[in-house]
């Protein structure tokens, strides 16, 4: 049984300009110990998906269909109290985008780390011990507990955030662009840390990024989102070696390599408005292979060999 199964998830935001169809019929699964990379451009629905899984949606957001099954339980059906007590930050943790800048500047790291533990009923002294151990497991010393955020470097702050995510020993950690604000060296160190933690704590990750090259360092499986829909889903080996969807192929050809003298290209155009998305295949205005049917009808998710799935009329029999 997969650790996490998402079935047919659709989400809407109500805005003054209209209803934003942020996610439409998204399905995928993550097994224990596995890393799923969720990739796509800004506006593809990646962060919305993460927030739906940990149920931290904005007031104007609504899940209109679908199931999120974690260890066999549909977590969308649980009360907020039960989800908060047993799942959020307990079994499912998240490193939100830009979170290292969200540390409270006037509170010591200790107070920020132990607060969620104390809220769950952990005695203060035990919470301090757990926080100290978590800091050590991310390569920091316990004296960081007594520091204020401004006394730490960007890389140290990101390690604190990761320590906060893993201190309750979750099974799944959702990492939303966890290295985006860091320099290249610090980024490499954080990626190595994530690999080590995955091994030591048998973690599963959902690694959200716009950077396919970075995702390749961790991913066992890849979910490519385009304008709120699944474009392609499958094992990382297959998606990196034989991308099928024209959008995935476009993302791949924009990755520079050291070995090949490859001409880099980019995908022309922009992610469409999700208030009034294009008819048929949402990618058709940017697709070099668009056919008549692509403008008229949405392509189904077609299963190819080895459970590789692609939403594209080019593969319809
Ligand atoms: Fe391109 Fe058509 Fe495939 Fe969409 S369905 S990606 S427009 S070929």
Q: What's the oligomerization state?
A: single chain
Order of helices and strands: EEEHEEHEHHHEHEHEEHHHEE
* Structural class designation: alpha/beta
Number of strands: 12
Shape: globular
Which small compounds were modeled alongside the protein?
A: iron/sulfur cluster
The termini sit apart by 31 Å
How many helices? The count is: 10
Report mean pLDDT, rounded to a whole number.
Answer: 92
Report on this structure:
The chain is α/β, with parallel strands linked by helices and 317 residues long. 29% of the residues lie in helices and 23% in strands. It has helices at residues 46-53, 80-86, 109-119, 124-137, 154-166, 184-201, 212-215, 236-241, 246-252, 292-296; strands spanning 4-15, 18-30, 35-39, 61-70, 73-74, 92-95, 172-176, 204-209, 221-226, 229-235, 302-303, 309-310. The strands form two sheets. An eight-stranded mixed β-sheet has the order 6-7-8-3-9-10-12-11, sandwiched between helices. It has a four-stranded antiparallel β-sheet with strand order 2-1-4-5, with helices on one face. Helix 5 (154-166) runs parallel beside helix 6 (184-201). The longest helix has 18 residues, at 184-201. It is globular and about 65 Å long. Bound molecules: iron/sulfur cluster. Iron/sulfur cluster binds next to loops.
């Amino acid at each position: 049984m997969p650790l996490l199964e998402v079935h047919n998830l659709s989400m809407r935001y109500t805005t003054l300009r209209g209803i934003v169809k942020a996610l439409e019929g998204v399905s995928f699964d993550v097994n224990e110990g596995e890393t799923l990379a969720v990739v796509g451009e800004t506006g593809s629905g990646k962060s919305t998906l993460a927030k739906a899984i940990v149920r931290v949606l904005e007031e104007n957001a609504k899940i209109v269909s679908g199931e999120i099954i974690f260890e066999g339980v549909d977590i969308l059906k649980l009360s907020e109290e039960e989800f908060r007590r047993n799942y959020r930050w307990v079994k499912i943790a998240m490193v939100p985008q830009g979170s290292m800048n969200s540390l409270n500047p006037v509170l010591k790291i200790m107070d920020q780390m132990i607060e969620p533990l104390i809220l769950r009923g952990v005695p203060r002294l035990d919470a301090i011990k757990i926080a100290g151990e978590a800091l050590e497991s991310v390569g920091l010393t316990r004296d960081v507990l007594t520091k204020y955020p401004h006394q730490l470097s960007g890389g140290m702050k990101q390690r604190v955030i990761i320590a906060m995510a893993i201190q309750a020993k979750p099974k799944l950690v959702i990492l939303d662009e966890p290295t985006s604000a860091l320099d290249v060296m610090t980024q490499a160190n954080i990626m190595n840390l994530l690999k080590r933690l995955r091994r030591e704590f048998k973690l599963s990750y959902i690694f959200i990024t716009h950077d396919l090259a970075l995702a390749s360092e961790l991913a066992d499986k890849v979910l490519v989102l385009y304008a709120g829909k699944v474009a392609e889903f499958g094992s990382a080996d297959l998606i990196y070696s034989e991308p099928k969807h024209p959008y995935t192929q476009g993302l791949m050809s924009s990755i520079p390599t050291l070995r090949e003298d490859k001409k880099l290209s980019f995908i022309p155009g922009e992610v469409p408005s999700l208030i009034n998305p294009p008819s048929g295949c949402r990618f058709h205005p940017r697709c070099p292979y668009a056919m008549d049917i692509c403008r008229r009808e949405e392509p189904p998710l077609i299963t190819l060999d080895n459970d590789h799935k692609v939403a594209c009329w080019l593969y319809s029999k």
